[in-house]
Amino acid sequence: QVQLVESGGGLVQAGGSLRLSCAASGRTLSGYAMGWFRQAPGKEREFVAAINRSGSRTYYADSVKGRFTISRDNAKNTVYLQMNSLRPEDTAVYSCAAALTSPLQRWNEADYWGQGTQVTVSS
User: Fold this and answer.
1) Are strands 10-13 and 112-113 parallel, antiparallel or unpaired?
2) CA separation for the pair 75, 15 (Å, rounded)
3) Along the 123 residues of the chain, how does pLDDT read in single tens digits?
4) Are 82 and 72 in contact (CB under 8 A)?
5) Which residues of 91-122 are buried (b: 16+ CB within 10 A; e: fewer)?
6) Which residues share a beta bridge with 24?
7) What is the distance of C-alpha 30 from the center of its chain?
8) Do 92 and 110 contact (CB within 8 A), yes or no?
9) What does the alpha-carbon distance between residue 89 and residue 61 come to, in Å, rounded to a whole number?
10) Are 50 and 81 in contact (CB under 8 A)?
11) Which residues pair with 82 in a beta bridge?
12) Which residues 6+ apart lie within 8 Å of 28 measured at CB?
């Protein structure tokens, strides 16, 4: 079993930055592809970013490309999402997920999920 815990969310003004962390326990993350997903009120959960096991390949939704960066530190068993130039439409609950298959771009393909952290961007 892998337990995933997100942190780093909060309230930020438009144009600001946040760095989300996803810390894993139970097993080493190096064996898993990782992804970040988000869900805004009244909307379906959507893919944000993904990274392969080694961190050599990354994938992004068009809506965040050039603004968000996913990375991982397998030694620390942690995955990050650096979010810059935030917009009000980025407001959502952000969750990380882990999967044995790569890339992880569909929520229902994940093997493990975190509970999520709230990100609110004010205009």
Assistant:
1) unpaired
2) 31
3) 899 999 999 999 999 999 999 999 988 899 999 999 999 999 999 999 999 999 999 999 999 999 999 999 999 999 999 999 999 999 999 999 999 988 999 999 999 999 999 999 999
4) no
5) bbbbbbbbbeebbbbebeebebbbebbebebe
6) 4
7) 16
8) no
9) 14
10) no
11) 19, 69
12) 74, 77
Q: Which residues contact 96 (CB under 8 A, 6 or more apart)?
A: 4, 6, 20, 22, 34, 35, 36, 37, 79, 81, 113, 114
Closest CA to 18 of 94, 104, 73: 94
**The two three-digit tokens of residue 20, written as one number:** 């989300």
What is the rounded CA–CA span in Å between residue 90 and residue 92? 6
Place of tokens 């990354």: 58
Q: Which residue has the tokens 């393909």?
A: 109
Q: Whose structure tokens read 């592809």?
A: 33
SS3 letters across the chain: CCEEEEECCEEEECCCCEEEEEEEECCCHHHCEEEEEEECCCCCCEEEEEECCCCCCEEECCCCCCCEEEEEECCCCEEEEEECCCCHHHCEEEEEEEECCCCCCCHHHCCEECCCEEEEEEC
